SDR family oxidoreductase (Micromonospora globbae), 247 residues
Amino acid sequence: MTTTLDGKVALVTGGARGIGAGIALRLATDGADVAITYLRSADRAAAVVKEIEALGRRALAFPADSAEPDALREAVDRTAAELGRLDILVNNAAVFPVGALDEVDADERDRTIAVNVRGPYVAAQAAARHLGDGGRIISIGSNVGERAVFPGLALYAMSKTALAGLTRGLARELGPRGITVNLVNPGPTDTDANPAHGPNAGAVAGFTALGRYARPADIAATVAHLAAPEAAYVTGAVVNVDGGFTS
């Protein structure tokens, strides 16, 4: 059966768990060969690779700290070299700091900016050398970048808001080459790091219009659409997949 991403190759940073794993598996389901990066979750990365291979697709997993530019560039270049090309980059890896302004130390501040802001820029810069006409760069932001409803989220909100500027700037720069660049802002999503039945989940879900958490598959469906040929005229867009959190 022909699917929308047959013959394509994708790299998903932070693809071993949560939203990243959901995206990797959806892209593979739609026909792409997929590489992922991970930091500490080697066993989970191996499990995602096995699931992708069970779908009949090629899969790779690279250990890479998104705070380290050289590691990101190597992951991009290895994906293109070992899978033969690169068509889709999904900037998903992120850290989620929470703390009052006077509690966040310099190390946490600098790592958040390194992973959440510099990382997507470096990965996009490296990927742009490989992407051709029809290439896709899709970054994963956050509803918090649009609406920070609790205190202690200033650093995280700042880092995710920066992705909107990156997306719009890259869309202009890469558009003449037929490469689209978009940003997906998930709302509260049921993952290990943010379970739908966690201690604050009821309050968080209450901020959405739908009154519930998303599944990783809900976010992955939008990413898959933006990666597909049908979305060739969508670029520079910020798409909120947040259950109405920011409405």
In short: The chain has one domain: 9-241. DSSP finds seven helices and seven strands in the chain. The mean pLDDT is 96.
